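Collaborator request log, item 7. Partner lab (contact: R.S.) asked for a structural prediction of DNA-directed DNA polymerase to inform their binding assays.
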Amino acid sequence: MTLTLDYLGDGRVAVWTLTPDGVAREVHDDYRPTLFVGDAPNDLYGRTGGPEPTPPSRDGLSDALNELRSFPDGQQAVADLGVESHRQTFRTDARPLLRVDTTSIEAVRTVAKRVHQFDQPDAFTCYNVDFTRQLRFCLETDTPAAPDRSVRDLRTLRLEFPSHESGIESLPQLTVDSERVGSSPHEVLDGVQTAIDERDPDVLVVSTADLVPLLFEAADAYGIDFTLGRRPGYTKLAGESTYTSYGNVGHSPARYTVPGRVILDESNSFFYHESGPEGCLDLVARSGLPLAELGWASIGRVLTAMQIREARKRDVVVPWRAWRPELFKSASTLDAADRGGTTFAPHVGVHEDVYELDFASLYPNIIRTRNISPETVRCGCCETADVPGLDYSICEHDGYLPEVLGPLIDARSEIKGQIPDADGDERELLEAASSAIKWILVSCFGYQGFSNAKFGRIECHEAINAFAREILLDAKTALEDAGWRVVHGIVDSIWVTPADGREQRPLEKVTSEVSGEVGIELEYECAFEWAAFCPMRNSESGALTRYFGKRRGEEYPETGLGDAIKTRGIEGRQRSTPAWVEDVQSEALRVFDETRSPEAVCDVLRRRLRELRERKVDPGALVVDNRVSKDVDDYSMETLTVAALKRARIEGAGLAPGQTVRYVVVDADARGASRVRLEYEDLNRYDVEWYEDGAVRAVESVLAPVGWREGEIRQYLTGMSDETLEGFMNR
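Returned to partner:
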């Protein structure tokens, strides 16, 4: 089992494993990363019925591959050549492929690029090219990726440094496990080294990976012998970059590694942020992606690692730069296929006695129960019309994707069943594991439509949506026939309330019948004493994802109102909302629950606005948190975020697209960088009117379901006057 590993060059790899007292280091002296080259498949989906490849010649290779064989022979990047038989797709038999053993991890891509330059661009397909470094070694040497925690628990050390700071002179602001370790850069280096020597951590959790080169730069400047890893030095694995995913701009910071220790960068670790260290370790064991790589991996990369392992179990090689043209569809089929999940327009207003029902892991379970996989949808060997509305066939042979997701679905279901009876550390561990698995299951559907997915396919995406639409519509019909009124529904969730003048069949029986018919559990999520569905901001139509409601008290007997009120889409759920505005909205929700009175809610707002105007609000509670989508010079509008970016650049803390800027608005009507102050600056004032508008919008979200919009709220506030009790008594 593996803690981490280091590529040393010249075919040597050091593998670090846990021992009772520390770690053990074993060097593999002659490791040769391998890729395979094959003739481009006649059918990119691996369906049956395509023509056979060119008859084999020497060693079973085609003439084209034998001609290619002499091309890399003798190149410096190539250590050895051979022939091995593997399956190029999930639906084809094993065929002889050219095996290329390379001299280093960097040489794999070099050889693959040269192969693509030989002959026609589409003549050959390269396989097993772009695996991550540690995953590749674990796969090719059958080394377990997870550290053996039966030996001992992992030891962790956390280094935190302000994101806006840079330079050696700022090092005194660094903390080790939340404690300052020095008032000068020299003292900080000594303090960090002492903590490392005493604790001997296996994992370094850093607030930003930029700390790694900064510490070594400082050590060089002061002539100090400094070691962050278990051996001297560090390696830069990748530079910083900006990317776009589903329309959102993200920033990936530079990545570093040190010998013998895992570095987890909090600024670049989705799974660490969402599920903590225990969730990460649970996912390492399930995905086979080593901790050092899972720490920075996206959901798609972890899912791909699982798919790669399933492919290898089936002796299928993994294509590089997979290219799958969409199969031909008629115009009518294309129109029917190009749709998302079903949504029902919510009934705007406040509804009493509402029940929320959810299909358990709907999309993953559709994949599993309907055998949806890239090689099974429109397989070419079955003539059935299995997908509703699209008439796609689904092969009777078991697909690989259900095999990947099935264990995850079962594991999360089992974990969720254990959580209610657990407490303390055990509950925390279970929740972390459930959260980590949840994100894989949530994303598996969308990943099938991702153009760069190794084994994705748009027809899978379309088939899953088609089944989901039918399932939700059938559930709606069954519930309405049983005397329930559907007030909202979206993709896998449905909200119902008793229909007036009708007798209702028990929900337990109805959901049980629907579950049996569909083959996917329709679960009781929660009951609301009342639920409110909001209209769109500038329309009377219902907003699909903006609602709130009070869950029944017996379901939350030991918690306060904050836990009992469930909110979605309103300001308190938005990351850019200042903490003070969120608090105003929370208080407004509490009063709305107690009184159902718009006037009483507006009285709350009036009191909170008085605090704001009297400058009694801590500016730290007014920080706006926005993600940057472009470089500061690429914006055409002078927004407050642009003002903050300009100010950050002036302060020497410029931000790249995808990073987050945090600021307080001090004068929204001013020009340039003077409109805001950055979070770490001296915050001694704020723009009252700007934050007042934000508080009014937050309260409008609470009152819009009962017909009070901004105009009614401001009119009520204008008609009220503030008086002291003494003034009222002396009238």
